[in-house]
Amino acid sequence: MKKDTPYLRSKARIPQQARGIRTKEKIIAAAAALLSEKGYHNIDTPEIAARAKLATGTFYSYFNNKREIFIEIMQQKFKDIDDKVFSLYNSKIHKNRADNYREMKKIIHFMIHGNYEEYKINAHLLKEMFAMLLLDKELEKKRLTEEKKLMDTLASHMKTYKNNLRISDFETSAVLLYKIMDNMILQIKFKSTGLDKKRLLKEIEDMVCRYLLR
């Protein structure tokens, strides 16, 4: 097991310039690849820096330790879903209010398939993330916080179309739908069902439509 350096708060900086942002992204990409290949406990910060083709000192300009990168990767997963699925929905689809079953089905299709497409973390890295979350209560707390934001956003969207929906408890329905979609997407990513992903995504979509729509 390779040891990481002690966690030092507020040492690392948040890049503002394009060059700094690109450097940070290189470090995250290198760490994600190594986490997937070797696991969290078998890598260290110099190895991550080397994979990113940077000096170890440069690594510490952006992250205090490898744990911070793990948190960044996890938060980015949720941010991608929020920005590229829910926010895109707000800016493009929400402008034309759906007032019939067919249009509502289009929204559900967009949400489910958009969620799947933004779940870019590969299966090996996902498994490593779950292992870490089981061992680290603080990380699990952060995950639940990010997840709650997405479920609140989903509940807010459902309220917008309450006249077209069968359900009335939007908060509970949002939790139920998010958990179902998230779990099934994980099963597809892990290839644990033995079924074609297109068939599974279609059935998820049909199931959600039957549950939500009048």
Protein described:
The termini are far apart. This protein is mostly helical and 214 residues long. Helix 1 packs across helix 4. The protein folds into two domains: 45 residues, Orthogonal Bundle (Arc Repressor Mutant, subunit A); 142 residues, Tetracycline Repressor, domain 2.
Low-confidence stretches: 6-10
Count of individual domains = 2
Which of globular, elongated, flat, extended, rod-shaped describes the shape?
A: elongated
Helix/strand order, N-terminal first: HHHHHHHHH
Measured between the Cα atoms of the first and last residue, the distance is: 55 Å
Main sheet characteristics: none
CATH architecture of the largest domain, please?
Answer: Orthogonal Bundle
Helix content: over 70%
- CATH fold category name of the largest domain: Tetracycline Repressor, domain 2
Give the beta-strand count: 0
**Number of H/I helices:** 9
SSE layout:
Blueprint: H1 18-38, H2 45-51, H3 56-62, H4 66-93, H5 101-118, H6 123-135, H7 137-160, H8 170-190, H9 197-212
Helix pairs in contact: 1-4, 1-6, 2-3, 4-5, 4-7, 5-9, 6-7, 7-8, 8-9
Gist?
The chain is an all-alpha fold and 214 residues long. The chain has 9 helices and no strands.
